[in-house]
Amino acid sequence: MNLPPKTETDEVICQCYQVTESTIRKAIAAECLNDIDSVTKACEAGGGCHSCHILLQLFIDQYQEKTTAMEDLVHDHAQKVKKKGILSRFFNKFQGE
Ligand code: FES
Known about the structure:
Strand content: 5-15%
Bound molecules: FE2/S2 (inorganic) cluster
Strand order of the largest sheet: 1-2
Order of helices and strands: EEHHHHH
Number of strands: 2
Number of helices: 5
Radius of gyration: 12 Å
Oligomer: single chain
Shape: globular
Distance between the termini: 13 Å
Structural class: mainly alpha
Helix content: 40-55%
């Protein structure tokens, strides 16, 4: 499975620091960020429980136009998820697209 398409909504992705998707995507684009630590330094997203790291990596990969398989992202980051609601809401948005 390939990555879901970019979204036009502005949902809070990092619940710990209340950082929205647009803020994260703008930070990645403005500074050509290529890892989660850089995103955290730029906008604080990902600096708490790490549950949003899978989505931060997804946004980085999309910006770099990588075709990362969703299964690989889940394999690498799912163990960090402590706040279950974040991912279920996100992935539900892409069902049927
Ligand atoms: S939800 Fe982003 S660090 Fe906790």
